[in-house]
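Practice record 12: protein with MRU.
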Amino acid sequence: MHESTIWCERDHVFIIDQTLLPLECKRVEIRTCGEMWEAIRALRVRGAPAIGIAAAFGIWLGIRSSDCVLSGGLIEQIDQCCDYMATARPTAVNLFWAVERIRNLVHGHAGCVPEEIKELVLREAQSMIEEDNAVCLSIGRHGAGLVHDGCRVLTHCNAGGLATARYGTALAPVYYAMEKEGRKVHVYADETRPLLQGARLTAWELKQAGIPVTLICDNMAASVMRRGLIDIVIVGTDRVARNGDFANKIGTYGVAVLAHAHNIPFYAAAPLSSIDLTAADGAAIPIEERDPDEVTRIRGIQIAPDGIDVFNPAFDVTPCDYVTGFITEKGIARPPFDQSIPLLFQQPDFD
Ligand code: MRU
């Protein structure tokens, strides 16, 4: 497995620039809040949990050199950085979860001196990495029970280590089943147009980890299922609504419908930080629309006529009726989700 997606070394924040993968695995230092905003918007760092962690570091980068001598002034600056980071991308609720966590933290420590508050923000961002590792490992442990020896798993987009600090959500059960329980697992990765996260990232990270992976174009999933080659679908999510509707990379809904038609269990791996209890259902989830160039070009090469009309939603919503279960750090939530999802938040902790 690759080492990390985002990390801090002696007060320097680094990411792997995921836009360059798989051709180049380049570490890039992010020096300012503006650079972090751009890195999130441009998908240099991407995947819901990783975006949340990146936003927290972005806020720290925005105030680390502040010369505010009054904590009130510093907290005002932090609020501005929070508001700014929250505009980077709209769908992954982890971004807002992380931003509000930092905001609440500093407002709860208004009595501290500015240097202490800066240190608190940095430590909180760093602890998000450690927590994310523990959460993903727990998702892996709970999900591994679904992945039998010889299991063939289809996934869409990248919800592996690259989308989190390190271990991944949808791929965590695969890693866990193989590494900790010695089972053989084979992954089918949808390429995931338009930005090819499946081909560029999932295929890359599984290959790095020595896990057998077969890359397919998105439009091959139906045929692969019909041939009986898929035992289970596991995807990630950017936001789960209270009723179990959930947003994930565009194309996920189609995969869910196909899984249903072929009687294949369909799971979404979701840390609790990706669950939005304030969203009653999928209609409340904002869907990001991105630059038409992502559809008309592949890696800079034009593939469509000049001036063609394009629709480019980055995510879709899968209705809860198609979901077999959500694999979380606190166990697997099953239907009826409007009951099982809120219950997850009442459990004190996960092991
Ligand atoms: O646009 P992206 O690459 O950030 O989209 C990522 C996804 O859709 C992932 O499946 C989701 O964020 C879950 S990551 C654990």
